[in-house]
Design brief:
This protein is of the alpha+beta class and 132 residues long. Helices cover 27% and strands 31% of the residues. It contains three helices and six strands; from the N terminus they run βββαβααββ.
Length: 132
């Protein structure tokens, strides 16, 4: 498996994402949206960073169970119920990402949504990975 991150000098320098990712490998892993649900199906964490930590951990757990690793992520979409709050916590969320997933960023987008399936959820992450 090989991922190559493309960040052209003609585009704004990326912070916490890659502009494009090319991938070669033998399997695609599509990851369902993950929120801050615990093993009992309850939303945990009062703050956005707390919920982001759990949602990212859940996403990475699903990925590892499918035989992948954080470096295999080609695309992640973040759905936030409050984009302004997400921007306020961006530096902290970046630290959480690096701690859990490393410094190889996939192509990413943050999309503002009115609400998520569970009303208490503030953030959801989904994506796909390419693994051998």
């Amino acid at each position: 498996m090989s991922l190559h991150r493309h960040n052209p000098a003609a585009l704004s320098p990326p912070t916490g994402f890659s502009h494009a990712v090319t991938a070669t490998g033998s399997r695609l892993v599509f990851l369902a949206g993950q929120t801050a649900l615990d093993a009992d199906g309850k939303v945990v964490g009062e703050t956005l960073p707390d919920q982001f930590t759990t949602a990212l951990t859940n996403l990475l757990t699903a990925l590892r169970h499918a035989g992948g690793a954080p470096a295999d992520l080609a695309r992640v979409t973040v759905y936030a119920t409050d984009v302004a709050e997400y921007r306020t916590h961006a530096a902290e969320l970046g630290r959480i990402w690096r701690q859990l997933a490393g410094r190889d960023y996939p192509a990413m987008a943050v999309i503002g949504v009115v609400r998520l399936w569970d009303e208490q959820a503030r953030v959801e992450l989904d994506g796909f990975a390419v693994v051998d």
